[in-house]
């Protein structure tokens, strides 16, 4: 009897241990926000089978679409999102107004105007009679979301030319895919546009560029990954695995040897023909992507300081205090071995 009881106890302990190990081995669920593809590669990262070595093992990945980056702040706050694709404009709001003082910048997505790469355009109709910034007085201007990076850049440049929002012009929110139609139908006098929509033949036929994002604010950190420190501390190993897979994927897409296959994957996801991407994606006509996906903290600091100058935020912030690039650097180092 004693031997039987001991045997049962041992088997129970072994079963409990196996169950505990199973729980520990469960992949970490990581939900990642994105706004515009393929500027953001979040929904495209792992379309190529086998590119992600750790996916399904140490983590799972769930891309979630948002119309504008500020909307991700709420999701972070209530625990519905783990990685937010924020920009220089939404990040200060998240920290200062959203109460996310534990937010950490972990990886870069795109820089607008980096080097001689693409920068966002602000376009008017060729027949509008609008030829200079001052001509926008009394007009309706379209942005993809209030408080977004492109909205802040537009606000900064117009303010330098003596134009104040609400007093001198009206801003409406329009999703990027609808910008061309809004300009064509004269529902807005100026639109904000980016890749891939700027290359549409219809927009090129009716529109002209009045100024660019780089004209307004210089190089800007338009989109980078941010994550709460509490999530990082709990799941650091899985986060590094994700960043390694992310970098491996971006490098695969940028490799000329994979260009045709990569474009076909992107085109299929976007439900557009490959020809819509062939002339610009991953070229100088595309946004700049850092080789190791490291955020340009100097550019980001300038961007945030500009927001303070135009009165959008009450005080600036030291962005280095909110950056943890160690995981991205560790991920990059793995791929060099």
Looking at this protein, list some descriptive labels.
three-stranded antiparallel beta sheet, alpha/beta, 2 domains, D-Maltodextrin-Binding Protein, domain 2, 337 residues
Describe this entry's structure for a reader:
With 337 residues, the chain is α/β, with parallel strands linked by helices. It has 2 domains: 27-115 and 220-335, D-Maltodextrin-Binding Protein, domain 2, CATH 3.40.190.10; 121-217, D-Maltodextrin-Binding Protein, domain 2 (3-Layer(aba) Sandwich), CATH 3.40.190. 39% of the residues lie in helices and 18% in strands. It has 12 helices and 10 strands. The chain has helices spanning 2-25, 71-77, 90-96, 149-160, 179-184, 201-206, 213-217, 229-254, 259-270, 275-278, 297-309, 326-335, and strands spanning 28-34, 59-65, 83-86, 103-112, 121-125, 140-143, 170-173, 190-193, 207-212, 220-228. Strands 3-10-4 form a 3-stranded antiparallel sheet. Helix 4 (149-160) links the parallel strand 6 and strand 7 (170-173). The longest helix is centred in the last third of the chain and has 26 residues, at 229-254. It is globular. The termini are far apart.
């Amino acid at each position: 009897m004693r031997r039987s009881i001991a045997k049962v106890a041992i088997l129970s302990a072994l079963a409990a241990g196996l169950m505990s190990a199973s729980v520990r081995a469960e992949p970490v669920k990581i939900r990642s926000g994105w706004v515009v593809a393929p500027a953001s590669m979040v929904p495209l990262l792992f379309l190529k089978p086998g590119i992600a070595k750790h996916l399904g093992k140490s983590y799972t990945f769930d891309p979630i679409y948002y119309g504008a980056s500020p909307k991700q702040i709420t999701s972070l706050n209530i625990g519905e999102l783990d990685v937010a694709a924020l920009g220089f404009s939404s990040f200060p709001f998240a920290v200062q107004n959203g109460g996310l003082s534990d937010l950490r910048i972990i990886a870069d997505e795109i820089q607008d105007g980096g080097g001689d790469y693409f920068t966002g355009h602000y376009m008017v109709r060729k027949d509008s009679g609008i030829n200079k910034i001052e001509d926008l007085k009394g007009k309706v201007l379209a942005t993809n979301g209030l408080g977004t990076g492109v909205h802040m850049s537009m606000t900064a440049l117009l303010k330098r030319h003596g134009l104040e929002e609400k007093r001198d012009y009206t801003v409406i929110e329009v999703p990027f895919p609808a910008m061309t139609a809004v300009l064509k139908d004269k529902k807005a006098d100026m639109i904000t546009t980016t890749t891939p929509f700027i290359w549409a033949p219809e927009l090129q036929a009716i529109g002209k560029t009045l100024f660019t994002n780089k004209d307004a604010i210089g190089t800007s950190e338009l989109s980078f990954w941010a994550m709460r420190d509490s999530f990082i501390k709990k799941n650091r190993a899985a986060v590094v695995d994700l960043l390694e897979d992310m970098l491996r994927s971006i490098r695969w897409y940028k490799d000329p040897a994979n260009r045709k296959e990569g474009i076909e994957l992107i085109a299929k996801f976007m439900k557009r023909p490959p020809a819509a991407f062939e002339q610009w994606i991953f070229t100088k006509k595309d946004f700049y992507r850092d080789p190791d996906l490291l955020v340009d903290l100097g550019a980001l600091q300038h961007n945030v300081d500009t927001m303070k100058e135009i009165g959008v935020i009450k005080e600036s912030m030291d962005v280095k205090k909110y950056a943890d690039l160690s995981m991205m650097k560790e991920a990059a180092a793995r791929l060099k071995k």
